[in-house]
Each structure stands twice: as structure tokens, then as C-alpha cells.
Amino acid sequence: MLVLDTAQYPFAATDKNGTRKKDVGLYAMNYGTAYVASVAVYASYTQVLQALAEADAFPGPSVVVAYLPHAGGVFGGNYSPIEVLQQSKLAVDSGAWPLYRWDPTKADSARFQLDSERLRRSLEDFLQRENVLAAIGHSEPKLSGIRASVEGKIGERLARKARGDVDTLLGGLGGPPLLVLFASDNGNAEETARRVARQGRRRGLDVRCMSMDEFDVEELPFEKTVVVSVSTAGQGEIPSNGREFWKALQAASINLNATQFAVFGLGDSHYWPRAEDAIFYNKPARDIDRKLSELGGARLVDVGLGDDQDADGWETGFADFEQRLWAALNIDVVAGAGVEEEAPGRTDEENKVISNFLRGSISQAIADTSCGYVDEWDGKLLKFHGTYMQDDRDLRAERMSRGEEKAFSFMIRVRLPGGVATPAQWLAMDKLADEYGNQTMKITTRQTFQLHGVLKRDLRETMRGINRGLMDTIAACGDVNRNVVASANPLQAHLQPEVVQLATDISRHLLPSTSAYHEIWLDDKMVAGSAEQTSPVADYEPLYGPAYLPRKYKIAIAIPPENDVDVVAYDLGFIAILDAEQQNILGYNVMIGGGMGMTHNNRKTYPRLATCLGYVPKDKAIAVSEKVMLVQRDHGDRTNRKHARLKYTVDDYGMDWWRQQVEARLGFAFEAERPYKFTHNGDRYGWVKSTPGLNNFTMFVQNGR
Fold first, then answer.
1. Can the peptide bond before residue 675 be classed as cis, meaning omega within 30 degrees of 0?
2. Does the structure show a pLDDT above 80 at 9?
3. Which of the four pLDDT bands, split at 50, 70 and 90, describes residue 346?
4. b/e per residue, 276-309, with b = 16+ CB within 10 A?
């Protein structure tokens, strides 16, 4: 049974006749053998889904009472979703509408589950106070397991106070303290926080900079100056590495009379188009600013708001905030201060150039067993070797609370031109997924395998296992030519071997020449006839140079009338032109400048369909792939990675200029574009008759995993 309560918040204690409102959930629990849950649709989606699933599975009657407020308690169009959301959260946070689940089949201690975060914290605080009274009657009191003992807490606070006194005493030596906290999903808030930290060190301050979840809210009263930088996630939510801090701050009973603070937020004023949704713009920053003030903190400056819609993005608001911050603190730059603490700045381009042809310190990093990660710069270089570092977001808060590093692992992507693998290679990847990964393989939209969940200590053995299967991962990621994709249309199976061979030849021709891959992963030895082996002689990159490309370079090959590879969405696309009988490939129309990537509401980034340079005979395709890449290498934007893809270079210079540049390098001119027609751009699932006497089966794999 699903019961909807549509009353507006705040609730009246009685109705117009003076009758007290019935608690349906309490009545149902008194029944004794019914499952009961209280939910609020707009307060916690997860709790709603969990309650409904448990109610459905319960072997008996189930009652779910759901709060869904509407004007006058009547459903209608006069309430917007945002108003329902606001009232739901107010009712739940105030305790007027508790969230809970009751399962009479469980043990006594587990029957009732309180899901309201604020109520649960209030209950914990109450029980903690009760523990003090209970402790009086015990020489060795056993206090509640909900939190650490009160005595322990008091001792910790006294110790922190003592440390604070020592810090004050030594302030003249180390400089006044400054705590900089950040919560960031995409790195921008962290960047602003580190900028404040760097400027603080230049002014002789004793600076600590960390994510919000790394800091204990109970220690805020002992901080003299706090600067917070927070971005906006989802529906005006705190980013994942700040949510535990925010929960604790909301429930905290602390006095910040001795603390001064400043808050900077990053958001997008046009992310939510409706006027009533404007409250979500930089909501985390404004919420934290308000809460710190409510707790007694002294606001140094008004909350700073960085807006992606400004001409320079959030930089505009941050420049103003930073100027006001240092003016309010009235601290000048100290000559020579902070210089040694600041790590030298490095761009992605500089990182590639100084990497010694993609080596960096990768060998030392993967040999270091004291941690499960690599640093930022080796992480960027690892992409060229076909692997990315990742971490399990679901475990971040838990591990951070225990003082542990994030649950790091690595994704490995295989270079597999045309997406063709033998049964033996499939089985090899399957075995590696079980031995070193998370027991799953992923088939990507770009025709290759990916393994996930590989630990750093297993990277080398996994790479060697891939190599033993006559595959490799070099150039599967990074600022180089990526895996070349080709049509897999079974209706033209007689042409498929030719385009797969072209994809393989282009991929091999555009491979980086560095021997770093074999040196790091294979000890510079051929292992069972590895897929590619470059010369172990002194490294050089005849095609790429030491800085490689400004950004990734992707190539696709399509055979009309099928466009199953979305050829116009690639940096370089080859569209096969067939003879009159549709039996042989004569050459290719060359398309450049495609790409679907963009940054939301950043008008300087946009999707673009590829434009035709012209037609070339099929024996010129490899040369064209090289020369187009070289033009991008020499003229692509190396100062702004969001503007570094080939599509932006095409729009910056124009197609006439591009045609001249490529033709000059080729030594011949493109012919006019030849006619073709695409009639289908999806996969053909199930059994399809291909060449006479042969059938092809295309399997659907959900999410490619």
C-alpha cells in the first residue's frame, strides 16, 4: 500500500475540527507483522528506491507512506517541482517528516532504521550526552558505540587547544596560520584553492591546503583564518569530496567567534534555464558562507562567485575575490617567502617535452609499492601508454574518514585497429580481466577492449599478458593518433578486409617511435612476437617531435551506404568510393574537423561535423593521414587544451588554407569530392546474410560490458 501525504509544510498540529493528525506509519507498525517505511520523494531518491524494493520483497503486507506536498494538499499544476523539492527538504531536515524503514522480520536491534540524517545526528548527540550520566555509575564506563567516548573527545579537544596555543606562540617563526579548503569535481575549485595557498605562502603565512572531507569540522574553532573554494555539482549540490564535511558542518554545535572566513564558489548562471531554478547557481558556496556566519564566524569578504558565463569563465570572479581577500587580510607579499614551497609550474606541453619521449618517472612510480597511485605528471604520460588512473568514488568518503588513500586502480585500453580480434585474443583478455581486473571486459564504441580495476602493482604483468596475446596498448590514449576504426557492416563483408587492413596500416604508420613502451612494460624484449617493436636505438620522433600533438587525433573509415562508425564525427574520416558494381574501393573522400565534444554552456567549445577536403585514390590514404596530422601538429592550439582539437584549427584557418597546407605536404592536389550516399548508421543486430553462403551474427552487449 502506497499512502501519499500532500499536506503543505509546516504541518498543522490538528485539523479544522481540532482532531489530531493520525500517524499512519505508527499505526502500521503497531499491527506487528507489516513492513513500514516513511519516505519523501524529493528528499532522498536512494531511500525511496530502497524502501520500495524492500516493501516489494517483504513476505507480507507492506505500507509505504510518502510525502509529496502540493498547494492546499491537492494535486495540480500550481506547484513547480522546485517548490515540492524545497518543502520536502524543509519537512525532512526539520524532523517534521522523518525518514525511516521498519522490518519486523529482522532482529530487534535492526528492525528500525532511521534514515533522516539530521535526526540521526541529533539522536547521536543526545545519546552522547546520556553517556556522561551513565558513566558516573561506572568505574570503567562503557559508552555508546555511536561515537567515541565523551572523555576521549574532551581530551582530543584539549590537545588541539594546546597545539593551537603552541602555534600562536610560534606564529612569529612560521607565520600566521591559513587553512584553505576545497571541494571540486573537475579540478577548478582545487586550482583556485591552491592559488590562494600559493599567494598565502608568498605573504609568509603558514598555509595548509586540503579537500573539505580531509578536515575535521570540530577543529574549525581552532583555526584563525579559513578560505573555502567550492564548485557546484548536480542540482546545486556539494561536490563528492566535500559532502561529509558539509553534513558535519550542518549538524555542528561549535563556536567560531575566533575564526574569520571567506568563501569562493564556482558555477554557471545559465546552467538551469528556468528563473525559479536560479537558487542553484553557486548554492554550495552561499550555503557554506551562511552556515559559517551562523556559527559565529567573521566574514572577511562577501562570498565570491565565479561564473562560467563570464568572458574569462570563473577567472573573472576569482580575480575580484582574490583582490578583496588580500585587501581584507592586509598582508603584503614578503620577499623570498614561499618560494621554496611552491612547485614549479608545468603545462601539459612542457610535461611531454621533458618526459624523455614518454618515459618520465613511470618506471620508478610503478615500482613504488608504498602507494597505489602515481603523481599527476606521470599519470598524464601513462595515457600515451594506454592506461588511465582512476579511483572508486563510492569509497572516497569512507577511506578518507579512516585516513586511507583513495581506492586507486587503472583502466587499460588496447590498440586494436578496425576492432578485429581472434578468438585466442578474446580469451586472453577474458583471462586478464579475471586475474588482474574487476572480472569484466568493456567493448568500447571505438572498437577495442578496456580492462578496469587493475591495481598499480599488476600493471606490468597485465601489459605483458596483452602483449603475449599479440596486442598492445601504445597510443590507445594520449595526444597521438588513437585506435583507427573501420566499418563492420556485414552486408559489405567482401570489402571489410580491405578497410581493416587500411586501418591497421594507418595505425602502424602513425605509431610513436619511442621505445619507452617496450622499455617500461616489456623490458625492451620481444615477447611471443609482440604486435609492434620499435628500435631500441636512441629515441626520436620523426612524425610527432618531442611535444607530440596538441590533443588526440582520431580516424575512422566508412563504406557507403553504411555509416556505422559516424565518420563525420572524427578528426579525419575516409569515406570509401566504390565502382559502379559496388564491388571494389576506388578511393576515398577525405573529411576533416569532426568532433562531438564540448563543455556545457562554454560557447567557445562546440560539436562540429567534418568537412570534405576532396577525393584521393586509395593508395594515397596513408600519406593523407600523415600530412593532415602534421598540419595539426604544427598549427593546433597548444595553449588551451579546450581549443586544441583539429576541428577548432579548421575553423580558425578555414578549409581553403587547410587544403593548401595538406596539398603542399603531399605534393599533389585533391580531386573534387565524389558523390556518395549514406542510408543507415546503426548496427545490424542478430543474424544477417553476408557474402554468399555465410551468415554474420551481431550481438548486443549492454553498456558494452
1. no
2. no
3. confident
4. eeeebbbbbbbbbbebbeebebeebbebbbbbbb
Residue in the block written with cell 585466442: 424
pLDDT category of residue 691 using cuts at 50, 70 and 90:
confident
Q: For helices 646-653 and 621-635, what crossing angle results, to 10°?
A: 80
In the numeric block, which cell numbers belong to residue 77? 499544476
φ/ψ region of 585 (left if φ > 0, alpha if ψ in -120 to 50, else beta) reads: beta
Least confident of 133-147, 202-216, 415-429, 558-572: 133-147
Handedness of CA 613, 619, 620, 622 (dihedral sign): positive
- Grid cell in block for residue 533: 617493436
Residues 574 and 270: their CA atoms lie apart, in Å, by 38
Given a contact cutoff of 8 angstroms between Cβ atoms, the answer to whether 396 and 241 are in contact is yes
pLDDT at position 526: 40
Q: What is the dihedral of CA 223, 228, 233, 237, to 10 degrees?
A: 50
From residue 367, how far is each of 332, 383, 405, 453, 523 by CA, in Å? 44, 18, 18, 18, 14
Helices (H), 170-242: 171-174, 188-202
Q: Tell me, what's the pLDDT at 600?
A: 60
- Which cell is 313 given? 569563465
List the 441-443 sheet strands across, edge first: 387-391, 408-413, 449-454, 441-443
Assess whether pLDDT exceeds 80 at residue 533: no
Task: Report the C-alpha gap between 450 and 453 in whole angstroms.
Answer: 10
Element housing 227 (H / E)? strand 225-231
The residue written with cell numbers 586509395 in the block is: 618
User: For the chain, what percent of residues have pLDDT higher than 70?
Assistant: 83
Task: Read off the pLDDT of each residue in 450-462 and give the average, rounded to a whole number.
Answer: 96
Report the phi/psi class of residue 395: left, alpha or beta, with left for phi > 0 and alpha for psi in -120 to 50.
alpha
- Per-residue pLDDT, 160: 53
Listed as own residue / partner, the contacts of 33-36 with beta carbons closer than 8 Å and 24 or more positions apart are: 33/60, 33/61, 33/104, 34/60, 34/61, 34/62, 34/63, 34/104, 35/60, 35/61, 35/62, 35/63, 35/101, 35/102, 35/103, 35/104, 36/62, 36/63, 36/64, 36/65, 36/101, 36/102
The rounded distance, in Å, linking the Cα atoms of 114 and 144 is: 17
Q: Which uninterrupted H or E stretch holds 385? A: none
Grade residue 599 by pLDDT with cuts at 50, 70 and 90.
low
DSSP structure string for 412-435? EE-B-GGG---HHHHHHHHHHHHH
pTM value? 0.63
Distance from C-alpha of 44 to C-alpha of 332, rounded to nearest angstrom = 47
- For the CA atoms of 237, 240, 246, 248, what is the dihedral angle to 10 degrees? 140
Q: How confident is the model at residue 136 (pLDDT cuts 50, 70, 90)?
A: very low
Q: What is the pLDDT of residue 148?
A: 43
Between residues 215 and 7, which one has the greater pLDDT? 215
- Residue 307 pairs in a beta bridge with 267
- Range of lowest pLDDT (421-430, 548-557, 597-606, 641-650): 597-606
Dmax of the chain from CA atoms?
Answer: 99
Is omega for the bond preceding 284 within 30 degrees of 0, making it cis?
Answer: no
Nearest-angstrom CA–CA distance, 596 and 575: 18
Closest CA to 614 of 652, 578, 580, 663: 663
For residue 456, the SS3 value is helix
On whether the CB atoms of residues 261 and 291 are closer than 8 A, the answer is no
User: How many other C-beta atoms can be found within 10 angstroms of the C-beta atom of residue 105?
Assistant: 11
Q: How confident is the model at residue 19 (pLDDT cuts 50, 70, 90)?
A: low
